[in-house]
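Please review the protein record below. Let me know how this chain folds according to its tokens.
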Amino acid sequence: MPAPHIPFISLADIAWQVIIFFFMSASFTKLDAFKIDSPSSAPQATAQDDKVPTIVASEKGVKLDDQPISLGRLKDVLIERLKDKKKPGDRIVMVEGKDNLTLQTHTEVMYAITQDGATPAISDEVGGSPHK
């Protein structure tokens, strides 16, 4: 007596029909895209007041925008200059250390800058090419 035979070819046909049924009956959702505000092409006018304050501190003294200033007045002058700037990115003060700057002077300058929430940006050289 021959062994019973299972027709596998018809099972493969049924499997393909089930797969095709699922493909045809499936509904796909459309993903929403991000909405991005593109920048305008019109240049914005920059005011002279938008200049970043620059402090040059050295053993000889402290200068704010090339004007000598005492450490006692530095905090008050920075508070006055930065009072209208509310965003943290606008409250940056460039600091350049020169000529054997002492730790005490450096600390007092950083303290004066951070008292009103400004952010110090330390530089090797301001307004020129970097050291090589």
About this structure: Residues 128-132 have pLDDT under 50 and may be disordered. Residues 56 and 63 are 5 Å apart (CA to CA).
